[in-house]
Amino acid sequence: MKIHAHSPGGRSILIVETPDGKHLSLHAETGYDLEKGKPVEEAWVKDNAIGRHSFIEVSPPEEVEASELPGYAG
Q1: What's the CA gap between 18 and 26, in Å, rounded?
Q2: Which of 6, 49, 53, 66 is 20 to 30 Å from 43 at the Cα level?
Q3: End-to-end CA distance of the chain
Q4: Mind spelling out the 3-state secondary structure of 5-73?
């Protein structure tokens, strides 16, 4: 997984890119489960998440294993 952005706070929302190039919004409430992720457009990440909702951009994107997502968010 490539992490592109995360929300500030204790229950971070992660914006990730999957190995097949899809962008997903992953939430703490679902345990950062990829199957329960919400698809987002790449443009939305910069324009809306980072631009309007104060997400923190990860540049360059950080690569982690899917099993490491909860630890990364914490």
Answers
A1: 11
A2: 66
A3: 16
A4: EECCCCCCCEEEECCCCCEEEECHHHCCCHHHCEEECHHHHHHHHHHHHCCEEEEEEEECCHHHHHHHH
Question: If DSSP codes are grouped into helix, strand and coil, which group holds residue 4?
Answer: strand
Q: In the structure encoding, which two tokens stand for residue 63, read together?
A: 């690569």
pLDDT in tens, 11-45: 788 999 999 999 999 998 998 999 999 999 888 77
Mean pLDDT of the chain: 87
In sequence order, the 6+-apart residues with CB closer than 8 A to the CB of 53 are: 7
pLDDT band for position 3 (cuts 50, 70, 90): very high
